Amino acid sequence: MTKIASNLQIDSARLWDTIHETAKFGATPKGGVRRLTLGPEDKQVRDWFRARCEAAGLEVHVDALGSMFGLRKGRDMSKAPIGLGSHLDTQPTGGKYDGVLGTLAALEVVRTLNDAGIETETPICICNWTNEEGSRFAPAMMASAAYVGDFTTDDILSRKDAEGVTVAQALDSIGYRGATPVGTQKFSGFVELHIEQGPILEAENKTIGVVDSGQGVLWYDGKITGFESHAGSTPMPLRRDALATLSEIVLAMEAIARKHGPKAVGTVGEAVIANPSRNVIPGEIAFTVDCRSADAAIMDVLDKDLRAAIAEIASRRKVEVQFDLIWRKPPTHFDPKLVDAVENAAKMLGLSHRRITSGAGHDACNLNTVMPAAMVFVPCKDGISHNELEDATQADCAAGANVLMHTVLALAGVAS
Ligand code: HGY
Ligand code: MN
Ligand code: MN
Known about the structure:
Protein name: N-carbamoyl-L-amino-acid hydrolase
EC number: 3.5.1.6, 3.5.1.87
Enzyme class: hydrolase
Bound molecules: (2S)-amino(hydroxy)ethanoic acid, manganese (II) ion
Strand content: 15-25%
Keywords: Hydrolase
Order of helices and strands: HHHEEEHEHHHEHEEHEEEHEEHEHEH
CATH superfamily of the largest domain: Zn peptidases
């Protein structure tokens, strides 16, 4: 690699400024970001991102699910590009860094290579994947899941949000239903930078997480049907209370996750009472469950134990519980060659680092099923994420972006 390339550093202030510039799209009073996928704020940040990619000389195209690709030519255009990027959508009470850091660091890598006049051998392609969060439309990592063939484009286009709006309608409403069929853009590998969203790196005072694996994910949709009746005149033994049933299910899930811990977690993140009223016993509730483990066998046991507990609770309480698995993402084992490339970049830059498993899901976890992929983590304050308090330091963001850049340079090669 040329001397210039090996000493190359991204522009830390420019990266930091872009992160905070995009935070205004969906800024919340508590200092977080609410930028639900395919909503007006997502359109704002997408338009912003497209303009910056084009200003950096990238050829931008959008696929049928709105994922955005910015291609930077390499000397040998016959080779499939190295991909880098993440997502720009956020949780309802999201932060400034989740997904944003990886996407804007990819843009910063391009800007730095442009400034240095470096041409890579293999082209590179930066990405903004649609709906990584899975909050408005399920599943999470939706567009990259379709890209790898876990779902058809038509299936995803028909998915509805809580208001009954389809993905197709939402894409059309912001003008991001692209012409390119999903999967058209090929890659020879993919590297994603992300905040850890957990406490390990900060606790161990490590700057870089060399992500070699990721937890598997189980998502369920549940529906409890009890019986609405008068809150005053219905004796306790005669009640078929949907909310009391859910309360038992939540505690059972917590006990099951703890029993199989520490390599297991479980969350009921959504619960909606149909026709809620203070003096009516809840008769119907829709709820969601998210269970995870880095061990596929534990995932299977979580599923079995949870279904057994729900069956026992439902029969004892004389209610019906519908419990459907809507998404199963097996654990991820990233490509050893690319993981080594990340580790070598961290070493070359003299950054403290350690191997780590990702607790969160990421687009790179899906992409790894069809191409070599790896991830770079940096710490976030107190390990907090999916919370408006999410925070990271400029130095760590820059360190992560430099590891991303040098990993990509090692994979793509430097032509000049
Ligand atoms: O759910 C996840 O792990 C990711 O943040 N969407
Ligand atoms: Mn993310
Ligand atoms: Mn997230």
